[in-house]
Structure formats: C-alpha cells, structure tokens
Amino acid sequence: MTSSSLPTLAEIARIPGEQLAAAVGVCLDAAAFPVLARLLDLDLLERLARGPASLAWLADEVADLATPVSLQMTAELACAFGLLALRDQRLELTTFTRTFYLKNSQVRLLGLVDRHRRYLAAIGALPAALRETRRADRRLWSDQADAREQAAYFKARGAFNEASRSYFWDTAALLARAHADRDLHAHRIVCDVGAGPAAFAAILKQAAPQLRVHAAEVNYADPDYLAATAAALQTLNIPVELHAINVLHRSLPPDIDLLTANRLFSGLSREGAEGWARRLFAALAPGGTLALVDFFATGEPAHDRSLAALLSLWMAWNHHELARDPPTDPRDDRHAWGWNSPWRCDELAALLARVGFRDVRSRSVVPPFALVEATRP
C-alpha cells in the first residue's frame, strides 16, 4: 500500500465495527498508545511483518535504539495490549496489528497514530487545562466573519493543513464506514464539504463509479494544497471534482442529492451553526440526504467515553502548547483555542429540524465518530 492508496468501501465494511473501535481506542489510551508508538519508532512492526522473530534477534537488530530490558518491557506490554503475540518463544504480529498499523495495512491508521503522537508529552497538562481553559472563539468559522477575513485565516493555517494530510487521508476510512450500508447507486451527485485531501470523496467514487463526486474545500485556494490533492487522486485514477469554495459565501454545485460534511460541526459554536445548517439545506436538492460524520455525543456510555477521551487530549495539548509557546501575534489562531462543548446528536437533530430538514436520525459509527443524517423535503 502506497502513501496515496485507499481501502475500498467493501474492504472497510468487512472489518467488524468493534475492531475499528478498538484500533481507534488504542490511540486514545494513555497507556497503550505509547507502547504502539515505541513499536513503530523501533520499526518492530515492519520487521515482524516479514515473519516471527525471537526477542534476542530483535534486540540485536535495534541494539543502538533500545536496551534489552526496555525492549523486553515493550514486547511484553505490547502482547498484553494485543499488539503482538508470543508463540514458541517468538514474537509475531496479531491480526489486529496487521489490519491497522502497517504501511500496507488493509485499513491503515498510521496517520491517526502520527496525529496522536503530539499528545504524548501534552497529557500531563490536563489538570491545568481543567483549571484554566477558556471558552473557544469560533467566530471565524461562522457567517459572522466576512470572506476576506476567513480567507486570510485559512491561508495562515496552510502549514497545519499540509501537515495534517496523512491524518485526514488515513482516517477517511473511519468516516466512510458510516456509508457502508448506503445504496450509493440511488444517488447521482455527491458533494463533500470541507473535503481536505478528498480521500473520503474518493472512497465514495471508487465504490460507485456512476456518481459525480464534488469535493468542496476552502483550502483548495492554496495552489500547492490543491495540486497535491489532485496529484494523489490522479495516482489512484479516481476522478473527483475539486472546488475551492467557501460554503458560507459561495454556492455549491447544483443538483446535489447526497451532501456530506465530516468533522465540521464539532468546530462550530452554537451561535455559528445555524448559518451553516441553512447553507447546507439550500445546497441540497429536494429529496436529498445530508450526512454528517463527526465527534458527536450519542448518549451511549461507551461512545461518549471515547469522545471524552479525545476531547481531554485536545484540551491538554492546547494548554501544553499555549504554555510552551504563548502567542504574541494578535493574528495567531491559537487565541481562539478553548472549550467548545461537544454537540449531542439530539441537539443537532433539533437544529436541523429548525432549518427545514426532516427524518433526522443518528447512530454511533466508530467511536468517537457518530453519524447524523437528515432529508430535505
């Protein structure tokens, strides 16, 4: 599997939901995740992908990176966490690890792992964050900001957007899982709003080639980001139409009958969300479906614990970064960081109904991701 490859929707659907949840759960586990990160740092997973090996052989291979005792500890903890197995005095990969954490894994989540590395040093800041975090300022994510102000904001975030490419690319499979049972052949035109590197849009196009698939992303105004996205899709030979659109100020393509927006509403304040909902309603053809996959609270304890773990990591990292490198430039977007209460599915359902949507339904997908979908009458 190359850096630009994607699993098919059928491959994603074949993996049991509890396995996907467990793979994400490792990245949310403050004890298990450092062990996984260490296995990757030592390149042990790729070494063991070539076949089982003794601990002594591995110790010789990584002698310049790990002491024998530290390697033994790492291996034994990895076995306890289900990442490795010991058989006949030889270590081997579990099916679980092969599925998610190798470069050529069926559903590769290395982009998610890389994103969560930043939380390793930051988690100790959570107690201070719980004492001192302010409310987030999300005005630039709403129709309260004009298009020029928003364009300048997103241009300043260019390095962050590019650095996040592998995270958004590899986690597209988790978003696509919400559509595994959808009859994509019942749709003609799909548009993904806030599409990032367009991996999610590409998975849908690959699953249903008859679809016309649009990807709308404000960051496509950056020529380099747009070119890198187009090149990755060309490598896969998956035609997705890319549009540099600020949805709050410009119209989406016409006749959309499946409108998706992933990881969007979790970034919106209550004050700014209704404007977005009205824009999405207006963009969707009558009878069409809106589908939002995001970090929503469902009311299910296991799902909401997963969401709480993720939010805790976010807040710890925010506090850690602000303490390490306080912003001095008034244009620094970190001034807007802070607590933004997670949306509950029932709360979002009420908002969507208020702007005209009907038949609103929701469910957990891969915790902490949940799906909220609705129909435009």
Describe this structure in words.
It is a single chain. With 377 residues, the protein is of the alpha/beta class. The chain is built from 18 helices and nine strands. The strands form two sheets. Strands 5-4-3-6-7-9-8 form a seven-stranded mixed β-sheet, with helices on both faces. Strands 1-2 form a two-stranded antiparallel ribbon. Helix 3 (32-41) crosses helix 6 (68-80), helix 5 (55-61) packs across helix 6 (68-80) and helix 13 packs parallel to helix 14 (199-207). The two termini are 42 Å apart.
Outline type? globular
Order of helices and strands, N to C?
A: HHHHHHEEHHHHHHHEHEHEEHEHHEE
Low-pLDDT segments, ≥5 res: none
Mean pLDDT: 96
What can be said about the biggest beta sheet?
A: 7 strands, mixed
How many β strands by DSSP?
Answer: 9
Percent in strands: 5-15%
- The strands making up the biggest β-sheet line up spatially as 5-4-3-6-7-9-8
Radius of gyration, CA atoms, in whole angstroms:
21 Å
| Helical/strand content category | alpha/beta
Distance between the termini: 42 Å
What's the helical proportion of residues? 40-55%
Helix segment count?
18
Organism: Nannocystis pusilla
Protein name: O-methyltransferase
